[in-house]
Amino acid sequence: MKKYILDLRVVAVEHPREGYALLKLTNDEGALPEMVPGQFVEVKVDKTEGVFLRRPISINRICREANELWLLVHAVGEGTRTLYNMQAGDTLNCVLPLGNGFTTTHPAGNKVLLVGGGVGTAPLLAYGEYLKERGVQPSFLLGGRSAKDLLQLDLFEQVGPVYITTEDASLGEKGFVTQHSVLEAEHFDAISTCGPKPMMMAVARYAHAKGITCEASLENLMACGLGACLCCVEKNHEGHNVCVCKEGPVFNTEQLQWQN
Amino acid sequence: MAKLGVNIGKLSLKNPVMTASGTFGYGLEFADFIDLNELGGFIVKGTTLNPREGNDYPRMAETPSGMLNCVGLQNKGVDHFCKEIYPQLEHLDTNVIVNVSGSTLEDYVECASRINALPHVPAIELNISCPNVKAGGMAFGVTPEGAASVVKAVRQAYDKTLIVKLSPNVTSIADIAKAVEAEGADSVSLINTLMGMSIDIERRKSRLSIGTGGLSGPCVKPVALRMVWQVAQAVNIPIVGLGGIMNATDAIEFIMAGATAIEIGTANFIDPAVTIKVVNGINEWLDNHGVKDVNDIVGCLEV
Fold it and tell me: Which of A143, A173, A222, B232 could form a disulfide with A232 if both were Cys (CB 3.0 to 4.6 A apart)?
């Protein structure tokens, strides 16, 4: 898929929860490039002391009719705080689309479970919509420490069934995503997951034990996003270092050393 | 339009702008953003005789105006380059230069001689300055004797343009440059990264898996510029300058300090199209100042 450097205009900024910003971007020069859920964008953070590199942000939603690209940002450091404070009308320089997205070949009618934690739920919205449009049945299993860590639930509910766990029992079932009762009650043909690494590894172990295909989207620390700097490596099943930005960020978990 | 062509040994560059090894992949990663043929040349990632996995993750830490890396020369080996990568590059109308690294003299020589057999690779950049590998790498590059020994051995096996990449992690870079010039190097490129550290105080651990890493980006530019200027006083062979170049102004500073050509490294991560902007910016500056030929400003600095 051809990559571009584009100045995208911020159409609107919403704050779905404290500390999170949803940036709705558009391209004034034409249609947004072809891209698929699970790919990501390297955004340039301007005028921020201490920030030198771009920040990789996953694609939260692709709205073709409105020519909008949504990025969901969790303000955790200087760079993401600058993004959090952006205003409608600002310009964001983006390199996109980067990496390989989630599986696009599930047969219609298949049931796919999308498991997310924290801000890692962001790309699952785009993916769920993508699957639904193609007749695949997405369900969402979303986890957080508390109800306030769960984002965009209203949008997820428009796409498919939503199952929730929180560690403090403030919403859904108490515990971790891998403890939710839906995993026993229902059968899924495949799982895709994005969130904290320990969560994704637990999901991968569950899928491995059940013999279900599982893919995970990683967010290793990276510089270029293009496969040039070789900083964001993860060990694959053969023990080789592979770039998350170029070979991933979405990997079949059997291709990683996550089974132990 | 000023004349932008420069020569490095037997190598003719259509303009002085190249890319630094390890920051530009095999060039192909950037082909969506720029026309590779508009570059003076590009230097592909560090290549060794045998495949190397490199160091463990984490390999990168952002710093004020720069970054640290400890990739450790991850690459699939010279035979993989010759069989899988070279066929994708040989048709290009620019100089494809291979950065050659090794752990022993024999490795350097064998790797260089296999690259010597590729008709469309007109030069190598001998890396005697990688700070992130235990054996070899920078160990050869920190003494004049060590540097001379690698260049002497490789010179016998390699008859095209030989550029030697120097480490800044030395007491006198000019002495190292003189030593490699005496052994027949056609050019020196400098600087490789400066060794540095970054510590996560909450975890009381280094942010890099091997503790230290190489610093690059605009934060190293003043050091790099000073070293290019010092080496320019010490040797007669052409110099390739690099270290924190972000734009045409930076590039012209290096040229005035004594560099015949320049390499752009870390800036490629921030703007994948920066190289072409620097080519155009140099041309524009020359035109605006009535300079007909970029060679007229090489080493023009008066102190």
Answer: A222
ipTM of the prediction: 0.95
B27: chain A residues, CB-CB within 8 Å: none
Q: What is the DSSP string of B124-178?
A: EEEE---TT-SSSTHHHHTSHHHHHHHHHHHHHH--SEEEEEPPSSSS-HHHHHH
Q: H or E stretch including A214? A: strand A213-217
CB contacts, 8 Å: B33 with chain A? 3, 5
| B59 contact residues in A (CB cutoff 8 A) | 230-233
Q: In the CATH scheme, what is the code of domain B6-297?
A: 3.20.20.70
Nearest to B25 among A3, A220, A228 (CB): A228
Q: Is B296 exposed, middle or buried (0-12, 13-18, 19+ CB in 10 A)?
A: exposed
In terms of CA atoms, which chain B residue is nearest residue A225? B269
B2-33 pLDDT, tens digit per residue, is: 999 999 999 999 999 999 999 999 999 999 99
CATH 2.10.240.10 domain residues, chain A: 218-260
The pLDDT assigned to A260 comes to 57
Instruction: Return the exposure string of A102-123: e unless at least 16 CB atoms fall within 10 Å of the residue's CB, then b.
Output: bbeebeeeebbbbbbbbbbbbb
- Choose the closest CB to A3 out of B32, B57, B59: B32
Contact A231 B23 (CB under 8 A): no
- pTM (2 d.p.): 0.96
Give the C-alpha separation, A33 to A182, whole Å: 37
**What pLDDT score was predicted for residue B135?**
61
Q: How far separated are the first and last CA of chain B, in Å rounded?
A: 29
Q: Are B224 and B191 in contact (CB under 8 A)?
A: yes
Q: Regarding the domain delimited by A218-260, which CATH topology (the fold level of the hierarchy) does it fall under?
A: Dihydroorotate dehydrogenase B (pyrk subunit); domain 3 (2.10.240)
B130 tagged catalytic = yes
pLDDT digits (tens, 9 = 90+) for A240-255: 999 999 999 999 999 9
Q: Which of A52, A224, A239 sits opposite B268 (nearest CB)?
A: A224
As a whole number, the mean pLDDT across chain B is 96
Domain range A111-217, CATH architecture: 3-Layer(aba) Sandwich (3.40)
Residue A231 to residue B71, Cβ atoms within 8 A? yes
- B200–chain A Cβ distance below 8 A for any pair: no
Which residues does chain A have within 8 Å of residue B271's beta carbon, measured at their own beta carbons?
A: 5
**DSSP letter at B84?**
I
CA dist., res. A109 & res. A117, Å (int): 26
CB contact under 8 A, A54 and B217: no
State the span(s) of chain A assigned CATH 2.40.30.10: 4-98
